[in-house]
Amino acid sequence: MTCAADATLLHIKRGNHGNTDFRHIKLIKRLKEAGFSEPQAEAIADAFKAVQEASVQDLVTKQDLKAELRELEIRIIKWVIAISAGQAALIIALHKLIRWRQEHS
Fold first, then answer.
1. pTM of the complete model beyond 0.85
2. DSSP labels for the chain?
């Protein structure tokens, strides 16, 4: 193993990282077995790990989705109430206009 792999193992033993480091080391091992040099295998594994970590940052939880859903439900309810009030006001205005025209015809 190289110094980088030894340092990674040291971090794992200290508990500084999760399962990602085990997969990282396993990927390096598999790449080396497939014929890549150790620096190439480490570079590929590091790139893969960076992409994976960036992707994880974009994930949302069920709580995030539920909170967003609640917010959207509230916005929809407000719109429905506003539209209903507008329709009621329009109906009342039309009713008054019809009665006024009937009285003045």
1. no
2. --HHHHHHHHHHHHT-S-HHHHHHHHHHHHHHHTT--HHHHHHHHHHHHHHHHHHHHT---HHHHHHHHHHHHHHHHHHHHHHHHHHHHHHHHHHHHHHHHHHT-
Contact between residue 12 and residue 52 where contact means Cβ atoms under 8 Å apart: no
- 11-12-16 Cα angle (round to 5): 65
Q: pLDDT of 5-54, one tens digit each?
A: 444 444 443 344 456 677 888 889 999 999 999 999 999 999 988 887 77
Does residue 21 contact residue 11 with C-beta atoms inside 8 Å?
yes
